[in-house]
TrEMBL record:
Cross-referenced CDD domains: SgaA_N_like
Name listed for the protein in its UniProt record: VOC family protein
Organism: Streptomyces caeni
One Pfam family matching this protein: Glyoxalase
PANTHER family listed in its UniProt record: CONSERVED PROTEIN (PTHR33993:SF10), GLYOXALASE-RELATED (PTHR33993)
Length: 220
């Protein structure tokens, strides 16, 4: 994001997050002391301000190879982040960008599916059937395996957004009271992008923060 300090103020008040230095100029966001997200400054001001979904993997280079073989692209090659882990950025065949994280001393989320933490990632695709084929071959056990807790869905872009919107992932954060959270977003300088609607996994509203990054509020 362009201004990490402004991001800390916005999300700290919205979700009750606290922050500590992570690596470089990035900061960890914590909920009751548990890691729930990270805020990082943009290296290139021409790039959009976004939330990025990272999929955990035990072997980022191997998964990067499978992504290429399945028709995706590697945007950023697997790169060590000190002893914290290995990260990479990839794009699916339709161009939706996502991250890979091979945990080291930082395994990933310390809390999720509770108010103020990650709860769902929705992929808005041009062709959901293509997305199903691509991601099922990469993350089948996590997405479709027996006993798996769903945290990832696929839908057509036009179901919620204008048809010209490019394919993308939308990060959802859980909230106790959707109406109160929407009011807080607007009070803090954000805006409502898509008013509340009912999805199979809860009530969703799409918003942007005060720097233009889109995310969703999810009340279950």
């Amino acid at each position: 994001m362009p201004d990490v300090e402004a991001g800390k103020r916005f999300y700290g008040e919205l979700f009750g997050w606290t922050f500590e230095e992570a690596y470089g100029s990035s900061v960890w966001a914590r909920l009751d002391g548990r890691p729930v997200a990270a805020l990082a400054p943009k290296r290139d001001g021409r790039m959009p301000t976004v939330w990025t979904v990272y999929f955990a993997t035990p072997d980022a280079p191997a998964l990067a190879g499978r992504i290429r073989a399945a028709g995706g692209q590697i945007v950023t090659l697997p790169t060590p982040v000190d002893a914290l882990g290995v990260m990479a950025l990839a794009a699916d065949p339709e161009g939706a960008v996502f991250g890979l994280w091979q945990g080291g001393t930082h395994p990933g989320f310390g809390a999720r599916r509770e108010p103020g933490s990650f709860a769902w990632a929705q992929l808005y695709a041009r062709d959901p059937a293509t997305a199903n084929a691509f991601y099922a071959n990469l993350f089948h056990d996590a997405l479709f395996g027996p006993g798996a807790v769903p945290e990832f869905g696929r839908a057509a872009v036009g179901d919620v957004f204008p048809a010209e919107m490019p394919p993308h992932f939308l990060v959802h954060f859980a909230v106790r009271d959707g109406a109160a959270a929407l009011g807080a977003v607007e009070r803090l300088g954000g805006r409502v992008q898509v008013p509340p609607f009912e999805a199979s996994y809860g009530q969703v509203a799409v918003v942007t923060d005060d720097q233009g990054a889109s995310f969703a509020l999810l009340q279950r």
